[in-house]
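Q: How would the structure tokens look for this protein?
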Amino acid sequence: MNKIVLLLLLILGGCSHSVHLVNISDFDQKEKFTAGKWVQVETEQTVILGFKFDTNYVDLAHKKLIAKCSGDIQGITTRYSTSHVFFHWKNKIHMQGLCLN
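A: Here is the predicted structure in token form.
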């Protein structure tokens, strides 16, 4: 009986993480990678029992990334991942890019 309770607790309390997609934009060949500074932001969306909240989290990440740079941004990398917990999960966006002034 104790083994069944322990197994149920592990199943219900377990979590998982997965990376679904990584997109990378192009670089301008004229500039070196050391010419600017790397900027990065993260946003997330909470989903509880299939009900989604914060549906503009990708647009928000893009706006935050642009706000961190006063010049041109190149080589934007966008990573979409999910962290699962019991009955809810978080969709996460991590964006980074090379800010050139």
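The two ends are 65 Å apart (CA to CA).

The beta strands are 16-24, 37-48, 51-52, 72-85, 88-100.

Upvote if useful.
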